[in-house]
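step: validate -> pass
step: tokenize input -> pass
step: predict -> running
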Amino acid sequence: MKTIIRILFIVILFNTEASAQLVTFLQRGHIQYERKINLHARMRKPAAGEDGGWYESLKKNTPQFLVTNFEYYFDGNTSLYKPGVSEQVNNPFVRESSNTVYTMLDSSISIAQKQLFEQSLVIKDSVRRINWKITSETRKIAGFDCRRANAIILDSVYVVAFYTDAIIPSGGPESFTGLPGTILGVALPHEHITWFATKVVMEDVRKESLKPPTKGKATNNKGAIEIVEKATKDWGDGRNALLKALML
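step: predict -> pass
step: emit ->
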């Protein structure tokens, strides 16, 4: 009987240690993210005294949420975030933006492919530096215990992120990086948009899964801003909204 108990204790101890190592030292793998945009919250509401028929019609014929899937492959300090398979939204008022972002954290270089109207841009620049403030709030995402951090980017965009130190690289979706672990959740409350991991897979990542985007006009952040300003010189406030969306 003592022998059986001893064997069971060893088996349990081994499984516990193996599980802890699996979580603690996750340095490569594949994460699936779901991006959700609240389209109704983004709609311009009728002004005082304005006939709201158009608003109600638009709201009725537009889904409340635009949901898009993204794949994130990482191996150490190198990662690639790209669009996954998503349902098509057949609505003339919905224009979807699907960025591809290649990041090399060890050299602080980011190469992002972004769409500007009918033109594709390949923006190579340094990784965005974010002044995060880590809080005591926690949340479980895709089976991982995560801690909350807050920040302001682009002078006015409030960001809420949740990261786990069980996945070592300090990357995340889009261009969000710089926390002591991988970011599994991001929310931009005032922009009505979120990214949350739905699945994390520990696996070896093939080299072909970590190639930077190359198709598009090569530029950097400054050049991309100049291109937008030239293309939207008569847009007024609309220019600022487009610039913000492009630089997120």
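step: describe -> Residues 1-23 have pLDDT under 50 and may be disordered.
step: cleanup -> pass
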